[in-house]
Amino acid sequence: MGNQVLGLGAASRSSQLSGNPFNLNRTYLRFSSPTFLAIMLLTMVPIVVTVGLSLTSLSYSSASPTRFIGLRNYERLFEDDRFLQSIPTTLIFIIVPVAIQLVLGFVIALVMNERLPGMGWLRLIFVAPMVLPPIVMGLMWKVLFTPQLGGINYFLSLVGISGPSWLTDPPWAVVAVILAALWGWTAFVALIFLTAMESFPTELYEAAGIDGATWFQSVRHVTLPLLRPTALVVLVFRVIEALAIFPIIFVLTNGGPAGATETVNYYAYVSGFNQLRVAYAAAIITLFFALLVLLILPMMRSLVQDVQER
Amino acid sequence: MKRPLILALLLTLSIGVGSLSAQDDARPYDGTELNLIYFEQPYFAGLRELLPEFTEQTGITVEIETLAEVPAIQKIQLELAGQTGNYDIIGTSSANLPLYAQNGWLTPVQTFIDDPALSNPDVLNLDDFIPSTRDALAQDGTQYCLPYFAATVIMYYRMDVFEEYGITEPPATFDELREVAATINTPEIPAIAMRGNPGAAGNVWHWNLFLRGEGGSFFADFPTDLTPTLDSPEAIAATTAFMDLKQNYSPEGAANFTFDDVVIAMQQGRVAIAIEGAPLAGRILDPEQSQVVDKVGFAVVPGGAAGRFPPFVSHGLCIATDSENAEAAYLFLEWATSADVFKRVALNTAHVAVTRNSVWEDADFIAKYDFDYGGGSFLAAFQESLNLAPFDYYPAFPAWTQIGDIIGLALQEIEIGSKTVEQGLTDANDAIRQLLEDEGLL
What we know:
The complex is a heterodimer of chains A (310) and B (442).
Chain A: H1 2-6, H2 8-18, H3 21-53, H4 72-77, H5 81-112, H6 119-131, H7 134-145, H8 151-158, H9 170-198, H10 202-210, H11 215-242, H12 246-252, H13 264-274, H14 278-309
Chain B: H1 2-17, H2 19-22, E1 33-39, H3 42-58, E2 61-67, H4 69-81, E3 89-93, H5 97-102, E4 106-107, H6 110-113, H7 121-124, H8 131-135, E5 138-139, E6 142-143, E7 146-158, H9 159-164, H10 174-184, E8 192-193, H11 203-213, E9 219-221, E10 225-228, H12 233-248, H13 259-267, E11 273-277, H14 281-284, E12 296-300, E13 312-320, H15 326-336, H16 339-348, H17 357-360, H18 363-369, H19 378-388, H20 400-415, H21 421-438
Parallel strand pairs in B: 1-2, 1-3, 8-11
Antiparallel strand pairs in B: 3-13, 4-13, 5-6, 7-11, 7-12, 7-13, 9-10
């Protein structure tokens, strides 16, 4: 699988075809090695250093000298309520927005694929959130959610609903962050789905039509199966990217109120940059990395299987 | 024949070395570039305006970089820990000084004060600094930084609202404050605004005045006995009083209020009492933005059984250990904290938190900042608060960075109701004990 991901599998397969595997492989390696090395240096070195740091006691807010303490930071982490609380929070912020984005993105793409008038303009408007830096997104939503300035509660009051204190009530703060994330990235999912749908062969739909399939049946039996590989790619991307929610949390809630929206990476940030416990932060981020790998590995595997099957 | 040759040689040399040797005696640091970093305050805006004069005198140019408070402090700590040498001068509050000093990140200004070739005692005039602001930036008799900002907190109140309800005197105790708050609180104008965002510069900054006022403390006996005492009856009483005000008589969203939110709420007339930094008076009463100019009175913050404890911190400018231009940096510090510069910055900007007695006594300064609208002088309330403010408002040791964070979070948990007062304080107390045990301090 590793070979597949790095593209080496493709090279060895084509070299088998050419009948001169050795030479081609060498040329391939020669061309790719500088990039490969650069990427390895830029990713592996920080990872190794971080893991190494996590085994020490380095903290600028501590008076005791830095020394090797083995797995002590990790032991402490599993007794740390704040850390333990941040794990479910992180999972919520990955699973809920990504699931809704996939469903919503699919529905939007379906509608836009119907080529109704004005869709070109709609598409343009849809891209708008994607060009905004997340920090700007966060600030914008903060203004909307703030009770005194509050756009949202004002409009809710027009229809007779008294809006919640979005950013000071823990469950609502979670909802607020999820709403901002949905607004920011649903369009991305929709656009990728739409591009995929536009490339589907029309013959299949015509055949389905001849067989008497309704619109829903053709969506269910033609569009959805064809969309599967795209959906997998989108899923992997979105899960990896879901933690780009950090700047939104940073601006919107600061991980609050009282830690309700604090994700694992946000807690690492707080430990490292506010409390200056560098080694402890390194331990948190190492576990976070492990968590991400655990989440993404099965998806990558089915993605690769999917590619191989075709 | 020989002399012109030597002269010519010297001339060539001096051109070669550049302007540095050309004006040897008068401006020995000509051409030096200094970099300063801290968070945005009116003081720095004022300094930027006057910088050309300093460059004129010394040939030294200074780049002043200012960010928002928390990012600035984070960046400074990263730069210092990484020994990047990017900044010659950094700002710090007295609360962070122990951390910086312990890590050897600063060259004490004392080194240069003691150097007669560099220091100008008339300009420096150490005795003119308000003693608490100066001594807060020294350790074991060594002056680390020079103070430019005397921070304390006062109570701003709306005289018109008080009058409407027949209240003649500003509340002096926590009980009176609660009574007044209950009387004047309305949905349109809630009674009181205080900080709610977690942290040493947030909710802890205001809560501690209740803690100390009720006779509580962070530790059994700092610095000899560091047993945390946040679960004491005094701490529980103080927190209950603080939370009562925040939960029942504060604007919506107060659990997240930063100093900015408090200032704006008061400035826009959306709250009747604000307990907030005295140095922010210039903003609260800014004639161009404020809707409450003429209506605000000033008082020392209320107290409890143990007395009144206005918060106190001193901000100063310091020289980074990894600076290659420490002498030039000292010359800048001396200039930037001189009485003359302070006075002009105070008059040109909203920088009122000046740290020199001579400026506080200056007629122009008093004329600009007295703000007496019939509810007493602002400067009098400010000065009285500075006199009452405990020098050790926060415990001065490096672990405070983490402890402030722990308490801030606990207070927010209590405020939004996810923990009771007792539970929140007990948990925080346990976390602090654990931390100190890890550090080998307990």
